[in-house]
Amino acid sequence: MARGWESKSVELQQSDRTDGSQTKREVLSTVEQEVNRQREGLLLSRKRTEALLQSATHPRHREMIEKALAEIDRKLAALSNTNPNT
Asked: What is the pTM of this model?
């Protein structure tokens, strides 16, 4: 019988944990969610652009990619200034 009580306790703890994670997600406003989505997109773009820069050999092509990286970094900085939580 002790096992039954123990498993119920574990089950309750797990359900409490999942309920807590859902409330954390709901706390973010739609503006914060949009900023996070934009940041994630920019970080993915930055990673892809860095990979392009590593494989670029022509100087003008490298220059264009470096300018693109600078623009992505500028946008990321602007998002960080918009959202002080990050």
From this structure: 0.62
Q: Report if residue 6 sits inside a domain.
A: no
Q: Are 53 and 66 in contact (CB under 8 A)?
A: yes
Assigned domain for 19 exists = no
| C-alpha dihedral, 49 to 55 to 59 to 64, nearest 10° | -10
Asked whether residue 58 is assigned to any structural domain, the reply reads yes
Helix axes 59-82, 30-55, angle to 10 degrees: 160
Q: Model confidence at 32, in pLDDT bands (50, 70, 90)?
A: confident
Is there a domain that residue 25 lies in? no
